[in-house]
Amino acid sequence: MQQLLAIMQKLRRECPWDRQQTPLSLTPYAIEEAYEVEQAIQQGDPAEICEELGDLLLQVIFQAEMHAEQGLFDFQDVVAVLTQKLIRRHPHVFQAQVDDVDIQADDVAQVKALWQQIKQQERAGQAQSLLSAVKAGPALMQAQALQQQAAKVGFDFASVADAYGKLEEELGELQQAMQAQQSDEIREELGDCLFSLINVGRKMDISSEQALLATVAKFRQRFAYIEQQAAAQQKTLQQLDLFEMDQLWDQAKQQLKA
C-alpha cells in the first residue's frame, strides 16, 4: 500500500496530466470507474473485476492525495474514518452490550434497522429534510431512493396496482404531449413516466438501476452476436438490412438462453 501511495505522489509531481487534475475535475472518472466495476461484475470475469476494482481504488487514492496536498486529510485519515464508522455502525459485531443493554441483529432486516438508527443518532441536532438522506448519483437510483424516503411517512401508493395505474396515467399524458409536438412537455412527461415506472419496480422490491444494467448487459451480448455473425458472413453491419439484423437478433436470444 505504501508503494502505491508513493507512486501517486510521484505522479502528482512529475506527470503533467496528473499534476493538472483537481478534486472536481476528477469526479467524472470516479463515476465512470464505478460503472466499469458494475459492468465487470455483470460479465463475471474475475481478472477484469480485479483490474476495475484497482481503477476505482485509484480514484480514492488520487482524491486523498490532492486533499493531503492542501493539508486537509490524507489516505490514512480516509481509512481511519471508515474503520471507525464500520465499528460504530456494527455494535452487534464489535460490542455485545452498550450500557448493559444487549444489542441483537440476527437477520438482515435487523441489521438495516440498526444501521439507520445509528445514522440518525449521528445526525441528531442537525436540521435536515427527510429527503436530504438521498445523495447525488444516477437518476434511477436517486428516484428510487426519494420514493423510499417518502414512503417512510406514508406518502406512497397502497399497492403495486395503484402504482401501475399512475404509470398508465403518465403514459397517456406523454402520448398527448407527443401529439401536440411540444418538446418541453414531452421531456417533462417522459421524466414522469420513468419516475412512475421506477415506482412500480420499487413496490415489487426491484432495483430499477440493477434491472436496467442487466438489460444493458443483455443488449451488449446480443448485439455482439450480430457483429460476430456478420463477420462470419464477411459482411459489415452496414451491409445488413434491418430484416437480416432482426433475424440475427432473434437467433441471439435463443443462443444466449441455451
Task: Kindly describe this structure.
Residues 21-94, 167-222 form the NTP pyrophosphohydrolase MazG-like domain. Pfam families: MazG. Keywords: Hydrolase. The protein folds into three domains: 2-81, Orthogonal Bundle (Helix Hairpins), CATH 1.10.287; 135-206, Helix Hairpins; 210-257. Helices cover 74% and strands 2% of the residues. The chain is built from twelve helices and two strands. Strand 1 (97-98) and strand 2 form a beta hairpin. Helix 3 (23-43) packs antiparallel against helix 4 (46-69). The mean pLDDT is 89.
**CATH superfamily label of the largest domain:** MazG-like
Task: Summarize model confidence as the mean pLDDT.
Answer: 89
- The top level CATH class name of the largest domain: Mainly Alpha
Count of structural domains:
3
Coarse shape = globular
Number of strands: 2
The stretches of 5 or more residues where confidence is low (pLDDT under 50) are: none
Which fold name is given in CATH as the topology of the largest domain? Answer: Helix Hairpins
Query: Order of strands across the biggest sheet?
Result: 1-2
Give the helix tally.
12
Q: Which range does the strand content fall in?
A: under 5%
> Which sheet architecture does the biggest sheet show?
2 strands, antiparallel
Question: Mind telling me the C-alpha Rg?
Answer: 24 Å
CATH arch. level architecture of the largest domain: Orthogonal Bundle
From N to C, what is the helix and strand string? HHHHHHEEHHHHHH
N-to-C CA distance: 44 Å
Keywords: Hydrolase
GO molecular function, one term: nucleoside triphosphate diphosphatase activity
Protein name: Nucleoside triphosphate pyrophosphohydrolase
InterPro entries: MazG-like_dom (IPR004518), NTP-PPase_MazG-like_C (IPR048011), NTP-PPase_MazG-like_N (IPR048015), NTP_PyrPHydrolase_MazG (IPR011551)
